[in-house]
Amino acid sequence: MTIIIRKAMETDAPALSRICLLTADAGSTAEALHDYGELPGLVYAVPYVKLPTTWGYVMVDDLRDNEVVGYLVGSTDTRAFETYAAEHWWPKLAERYLPSLAKKPADERYMDLFRNMYTAPDACIDFSPAHMHINILPEYQKQGWGRKMLASAVEFLKGQDLSGVWLGLDPRNNGAKTFYERVGFTHVDGAPDNNMGIKF
Fold first, then answer.
1. Cα 96 vs. chain centroid, distance in angstroms?
2. How many domains does the chain have?
3. pLDDT in tens, the chain (200 residues)
4. Which residue range(s) make up the domain with 178?
5. How far is the C-alpha of 163 from the C-alpha of 160, rounded, in Å?
6. Which of 36, 119, 152, 163 is most buried, judged by most C-beta within 10 A?
7. Is 189 in a helix, a strand, or coil?
8. What CATH number has the domain bearing residue 117?
9. Interatomic CA distance for residues 48 and 13, integer angstroms
C-alpha cells in the first residue's frame, strides 16, 4: 500500500461524496438508507472543495490507480462558510431535492435539512472559527493515516494564524470518538456533547 496525502481539489468532489456515503451511518455504509446516495456528501464533504473559506486534504492510494480513499476537509471561518452556503449552496439543493421525492426517511431528513440547515453552536465558534470533517474508508482505518492527515491540517491552520479546530461527531460512532480522544480532542465547553476540539 502506497498512500500519498495531498491537498483536496474540486475534481475530488465525486470521490469525497462516495467516501461520505460509505461512512455516513456512524462510520458504516449508508448505501441502503438512501435512494439519493449523494445527499450526505452534499452536506459534509462536497461544499469543502467548492465554497470559499474551505480547505482540505485527501489520501490517495497509488496502488488503486490514485483512488481517493480518505479525506479531511473544513473551513477556516465557520460563520462565513455558513453565510455563503445559506445564500449560494443550500437554496440550489433545496430547489433540486424536494422532500416529496423522498421514499426513505434518511433522504427526507437531508432534503428537509437543505431548507433549514443548522448552524454551529456559539461555544464552538468561541473555541475556534475553524471546523473540520474527516472520513477514511474502513480498510484504511487504524493505520495512522488519520493522525497524519490531522498533522497536515494543523500545519495549514497554524499558517492561517489559527490556534484550534473543532468538529461535530455522530454520538453513535464510538470508534471515531476514541480516535479523536487519542489524538488530543476534548469536549468543547458549553457546546453539545457531540462537539470536540483541539488546541495547537
1. 22
2. 1
3. 689 999 999 999 999 999 999 999 999 999 999 999 999 999 999 999 999 999 999 999 998 889 999 999 999 999 999 999 999 999 999 999 999 999 999 999 999 999 999 999 999 999 999 999 999 999 999 999 999 999 999 999 999 999 999 999 999 999 899 999 999 999 999 999 999 999 99
4. 3-199
5. 9
6. 36
7. coil
8. 3.40.630.30
9. 9
